[in-house]
Amino acid sequence: MPTELEELVGFIASPNPQIRKLATENLVPYSTEQPSIFKTEDLLPVKHLKFLIRDHPEIAEHALTILINLTSDRRVLEYVATDERFLGILLGNLVDPAEENANLLAMLLANMAKWDEMKSIVNRKQEPPKGLQSNELVLNQLLDLFVKGADGTYNKRADFDYLAYVLADLSKHPEIRQFFLTKQEYDDVVPINKIKVFTEHKSDIRRKGVASIIKNVAFDVPAHPSFFDGDQINIMPYILLPIMGNEEYNEEEMMGMLPDLQLLPPDKQRDSDHNIIQTHIETLTLLTTTREGRELMRRINVYPVIRETHLHVNDEGVREACERLVQVLMRDEADPEAEGTGEEGGDDDDRIVEV
């Protein structure tokens, strides 16, 4: 005899929309408390839930919430993420400016992006909505949605913040990094230049995701010259500003800094999230892989910024990251260990391992 809960799970496939609505609504808490009830019959309930993302918005909302919770399980994640047809439906709904559950779709996609084979999205195409002004490449659509959809400007029901996590997980793959570094023909913009402006955004999710994207892309050492070039990516101000507070520097230190970092207002606050600060410092360390990067950081007075960060942020991870960066910047370039703090060799203790 099936239990009452098992019977309730069966009702999500009911032809009656009122019954589907009641079933999915009541099952949301059990997707975290008793997820096993959705894993019966070779994940048949999950299959039914995937169909419901196109149902009435209220039913779709509950179905998506359940799927978001269930995809923390590796088996369910694989079942959902490897369904090409489902992915196509999800992406099509996501870019629809009238989609009421766009944020939930972005959250589910963020979970799916943890599946390594999702990197194949780099070649995926779909017809873009006219209002998005993007091209057929899905990655460009996601990026444009992230940029143009901030603060409800594309879809009044969504801010698309969770696309930051989608893009961050995808950027762990070399082919996605290359996308971020390659100028796109349809708008003549290098993708990473679209997201760097969000390193000081009000949304913690956006800031965290963008910091991770920049760090992941920084593993591409041949691209470092473009990172430093003021006419190309010019990433340094966008990494340094979030880790700076309202500390005062002496005139010599301040005048040697980048213009964007000079004369900051007295109410300037550094990022409140210690993990984000640590990520930015680790990105700076990656950018010391080449001598050009180390000399640039010495020339633009990165050390005083790191000194003050170490002094004012009470977090072990941040302080350790600061100390590692300072060790590199203070080395004599005649030291044979000075070259290679990222992927190009050097001391194991000085490498940042990609996670």
UniProtKB/TrEMBL annotation:
Superkingdom to which the source organism belongs: Eukaryota
Domain Protein HGH1 C-terminal: 283-335
Protein's name according to its UniProt entry: Protein HGH1 homolog
Compositionally biased region (Acidic residues): 334-355
Family listed: Belongs to the HGH1 family.
Pfam families: DUF383, DUF384
Domain (Protein HGH1 N-terminal): residue spans on this chain: 94-278
InterPro entries per UniProt: ARM-like (IPR011989), ARM-type_fold (IPR016024), Hgh1 (IPR039717), Protein_HGH1_C (IPR007206), Protein_HGH1_N (IPR007205)
Region (Disordered): 331-355
